[in-house]
Amino acid sequence: MAKTKKHERKRILFIYTGGTIGMRQDPKTGALKPVDFNTITEHVQELKRLDCQFGFHAFPVPIDSSNVSPDLWDVLARTIEKNYTSYDGFVILHGTDTMAYTASALSFMFEGLSKPIIITGSQLPLGKLRTDARRNIVSAAEIAVSKTVVPEVCIYFNNQLFRGNRSEKHTSSKFDAFQSLNFPPLAEAGVDIEFNTDHMLSVSRKKFTVHYGFDTNVALIKIYPGIHTDVIDTTLRTRGLKAVVIETFGSGNAPTHPEFLRVLKSAIDRGVILVNVSQCSGGSVDQGKYQTSYHLQKIGVISGKDMTTEAAITKLMFLLAHEKSSTMLNKKYQQSLRGELTDI
Ligand code: ASP
């Protein structure tokens, strides 16, 4: 096959943050630790067959994604913004543990996206015999420069492309580490890569804009049978706290005993925003369906609808940093900003 002329070749920027994909065993402790790598094609030679031009940007110190913070989301977004016009697509290599948080956070930061931003990683390091890194990287790269443009922040893992802010890591031991139960995959890689264009966001006509900054004065409370209201109250009284995601049961249900509701109501009266998301990975919060969620609605808890916890918490941090009016924040929180929830 004739090679495309250099200036016509599509361009991909790889951004390496760390994670299992680039880890190696410490000979002394046996624990996996991140190693530096300088270019991607050195390690994944197959990429050379893609007939593309590659750029590579590695974080100065690769990190395990458990150390990801909103500052890193800003750094990632800045790297993409600086290179946005020079590349056709972006592939971020990232640890799997917090990949869904990063994907959600970036999705909110980028407005007017017209190019793919594909985040991938692996369950086994690149150097291991049965590694899943190679196929994840190669397919993510193919998607990043595909004729079918996916103008979204996505996660590609184990043959599936998911909307980033709809994904969650659901297993630490199998190759299909991610799932998206409330939204269909945007593409599936079999013999061909089949794109699900009906479900993609459309290429934006808006100017590409990056919104920087997150307000981390938030908390996450997971309800369980027997939870002490003191625990909830103490969390809700944390100094500077502005908003809390409460992970409830089923379709948004929680205990109905008066002390529990009093503690929540008192936080709302103090101006703390409370959001209800479900502990279930699939389905939606439906406040008022059962008596056990009706009370939450009555005291002013906001429904997080069918958002993942990762999307719910990063969206809160994002809106707290960018919306000064709480009425506006409330309204925007319940609307789909980047396809993260089903508007019903
Ligand atoms: N601990 C690793 C990380 O998230 C796990 C992985 O990459 O799969 O950075």
Question: Topology, please?
Answer:
Layout: E1 11-18, E2 23-25, E3 32-34, H1 40-43, E4 53-63, H2 70-83, E5 89-93, H3 99-109, E6 110-111, E7 117-120, H4 133-144, E8 153-157, E9 160-163, E10 168-169, E11 178-179, E12 187-189, E13 193-195, E14 209-210, E15 218-222, H5 229-236, E16 243-248, H6 258-269, E17 273-278, H7 291-299, E18 302-303, H8 309-322, H9 326-333
Parallel strand pairs: 1-4, 1-5, 5-7, 7-8, 15-16, 16-17, 17-18
Antiparallel strand pairs: 2-3, 6-14, 8-9, 9-12, 10-11, 12-13
Helix pairs in contact: 2-3, 3-8, 5-6
Written account of the structure:
This protein is of the alpha/beta class and 344 residues long. It has two domains: 201 residues, L-asparaginase, N-terminal domain (Rossmann fold, 3-Layer(aba) Sandwich); 116 residues, 3-Layer(aba) Sandwich (Rossmann fold). It is 27% helix and 22% strand. It has nine helices and 18 strands. The protein has an eight-stranded mixed beta sheet with strand order 4-1-5-7-8-9-12-13, with helices on both faces. Strands 15-16-17-18 form a four-stranded parallel beta sheet, with helices on both faces. The protein has a two-stranded antiparallel sheet with strand order 2-3. Helix 5 packs parallel to helix 6. The longest helix has 14 residues. The protein starts with 10 loop residues before the first strand and ends in an 11-residue tail after the last helix. The mean pLDDT is 94. The structure holds aspartic acid. The site of aspartic acid has 11 residues, from loops.
